[in-house]
Amino acid sequence: xxxxSLATIIMLAMxxxxxxxxxxxxxxxxxTFAFVSPVGVLAAAIVSLPYFYRxxxxxxxxxxxxxxxxxxxxxxxxxxxxxxxxxxDHPVGTLTVMVKSMTQSRLVLFLMLxxxxxxxxxxxxxxxxxxxxxxxxxxxxxxxxxLFLGLLTMVxxxxxxxxxxxxSLIAAGMLAAIHGIVDLAGGGGVAADNxxxxxxxxxxxxxxxLFMLKPFVLLAAxxxxxxxxxxxxxxxxxxxGFVLFGTFSRGAMIAAGFAVLLLAIDAPRRVRIALGSAAxxxxxxxxxxAGDRMGNLFEGGSVSLRVDIWSSAIAMIRxxxxxxxxxxxxxxxxxxxxxxxxxxxERFTSHAHNLLADSWIRLGIIGxxxxxxxxxxxxxxxxxxxxxxxxxxxxxxxxxxxxxxTLVHGLIDNAYFGHDLAMSAWLLAWLAFEHSGQKDRRAxxxx
Length: 447
What we know:
By secondary structure, the protein is an all-alpha fold. The protein contains 19 helices and 4 strands. Helices cover 71% and strands 3% of the residues.
């Protein structure tokens, strides 16, 4: 299944972005493949996430490979549902079971509620001329993740596929990491603060850091929890960690440091020493290699700009506390009405650099409540995982730590409102809270 998934990615990567015919043929092929193996196509969609900002052409339209693969998975799965229903002696009962498999999922119901709330905000967006941008972001960050999560819940009947899906996120991280290193070797990346920052296939180093944090922390948590996997996962962990460091994202470093500290608390002494040594070496290297950037925080630096943006975000929330401004509407209100004079250098920012403020401004009060619920739930699960070793697999706990690190990063940056970020976040949530079981350990070792 994994090789078939990778084959679909390679095929999509080789398609001409200027011709609709090969893309249409690929969609037909992938839909047929999804009829047989929907999980394989969903895994391929995750692997392709780092290339979301490099879409493929379908006539005058453009779609990312992850969207094409998701559409194929939906089509193939729908065809399978129709076939199973027609072959069943009790078609109504068959459909009822399938619907129940999704509606019994708290994750699906929660995301469905947020998606509906987001749809409501589309009717009252701040700038009606930019309603198309709002609809696009709603599709990318709510509707498509809902389809993805619903399919995961419906087509995965056992825990055997969980390592495959976790591996797809790790593969996506490695693919982006290799791309970033090759790009840097060729003189690519972004020059800033007297250093060159890795950006890889994503449009900005911070975007790469936000994505790379998830596979890196997931790998680090699995290595800390399962000794048998350390030799196999050591190289991917080093590779993703090196590229995460190479983005020189201070927010990502803080979030990774939080994850390392969390893992070290209950780890064996040897693991604590290894994690502590890695953290010290990383901090020292950052100070030596990127001293100007690490020190440029106040007096017009990153912290000062964040404070200015947060002040503007609070003013925006005060003006529209219930309805918000709508998805992807921050920029259209921020520059003309709310920007601080000292933040003019950041006038093109499209988000509030804080998960709670971002959710509130985009989705109104329901978005704010949803963000708080997520933070409280993940924090409580992290605490429970430290005291309860029964019933939760190492993979589930590792995914929860990765979610926790993502939320820490979300204190000072955009942790969710991008297609790649939203899809990978819900994959982690599914790994953390759905179909958790002790069989993951053996499945991981056999993968």
